[in-house]
Request: fold
Amino acid sequence: MRICTVVGARPQFVKAAAVSPALRNIGVEEVLVHTGQHYDANLSRVFFDELGIPDPDINLFAGSGSHARQTGSIMARLEAYIQKSAPFDAILLYGDTNSTLAGALVAAKLQIPIAHVEAGLRSFDRTMPEEINRVVTDCLSRWLFAPTVTAVNNLAAEGLSSGTELVGDVMLDATRMFAARARERYPLSSFTQHASGAYALSTIHRPSNTDIEGCLEVIFSAFRRLPWPIILPLHPRTKARMDGVRVPGNVEIIDPVSYMAMLTLVQNACCVLTDSGGLQKEAYWLKVLCVTLRRETEWEETTEHGWNTCVGTNEEAIVQAALATPTGSQVPLGEAPAGTASSTIAQALVRKEEAIQTWSKK
Ligand code: UD1
Reply:
């Protein structure tokens, strides 16, 4: 079986680090396409080096731009690449970025079956670019690999049950693969003099927080009231919006860090304050309290028993949620029904491909 995997942004590199080896271990020929959506070394290269992801077969160097420009640029370059390559049996897409959407539109029109990993997530907020990317990608996908029962139910509600399979969460695979190695390779002292449990960790990059006037100010006002130092690895989108924003004295801005470095920082934090989807889950799996700087989450399970609270950009709610304590044990999130999510996906793809081959020969 020959698969084209499309990645382009940070969270997709992490997912590929879990799935690519599983595909290659069972003999799938994988061609890895990097769209170039993320191009800074600390948002891209470092992930490949650190996580042992195979080098991309091609980088499309699509770069930044408005949504239309970025998506269109990836589409044009990906289409040209696929048309001159040997045929693919499937295209594998992760998550909800503009690279995912572009890959889905190109594959659908070239009639290549789409396998979507992290299918069925919904925030039900169509002002989020990611929500639009997810809905369109799921609609066009033949194989919908859902990480949770909630995702399976969302797909059913949209009439997409026939291609859906509950496989678990490949990010849980990645966390399990790399958390122990992170502790050895990146001791906390290599980043900060703060002791374990004596600081909070934050990431902020969603347009709803960076691009709406006043939001960053509200978040920082809340941070100022918290009793700990807050380490903030700053995403370039946010950095570009920081002019004139007053940063409180307890906020320590650092450059974006690698995946394993992030795992060390999460494991040792007393609290995570974030608008990232992936970090909410990593905090949960590593049993760290999370405050989600959004109004809703695609990972509803994390909010059970107070492990994660969605606070939007309400100063008082941010402070209260950060000072709260979870009230019960965790419900399972993203556990694979059999084996790991990555191996289930790899095996399912090979099985589906064999079924198609057998059927087409009849
Ligand atoms: C993208 C995804 C988001 C994901 C995030 C992870 C979409 C719509 N959003 O958001 O779902 O959570 O990646 O980080 O696809 N920039 C750089 N260097 C880079 C990449 C970006 O400086 O290597 C700057 C550019 O000015 C760019 C801005 O960051 O305009 C935003 O980048 P973009 O890739 O458009 O979206 P993200 O905010 O990273």
Q: What stands out?
A: Residues 9-11, 37-40, 43, 64, 70, 96-98, 129-130, 205, 236-237, 240 surround uridine-diphosphate-N-acetylglucosamine (CB under 6 Å). The radius of gyration is 20 Å.
